[in-house]
Design brief:
Helices cover about 45% and strands about 0% of the residues. It is extended, with a radius of gyration of 19 Å. By secondary structure, it is mainly alpha-helical.
Length: about 70
């Protein structure tokens, strides 16, 4: 990282506003979608999952059984 000191980067990464309580994930998603829409940026395609391991397939099946969407 030329011209950008590690100490400065650590300050940016670790600093947090004392009054910030964060943004709920739903609101963040809505804000991102609102910004992407006028720019014509499409949602990325989902991975077809043709090369998933058996354990990953079992995990996704369990999530689906519980009503989750992956």
């Amino acid at each position: 990282m030329t011209g950008f000191g590690l100490q400065k980067l650590e300050t940016i990464v670790t600093s947090r506003s004392k009054t910030s309580k964060g943004v709920p994930l739903e609101r963040l998603g809505a804000r991102i979608a609102a910004r992407k829409s006028p720019l014509g940026i499409p949602d990325p395609l989902r991975n077809a999952g043709n090369r998933r391991t058996l354990s990953k397939r079992a995990l996704l099946a369990a999530i689906k059984e519980l009503g989750g969407k992956w």
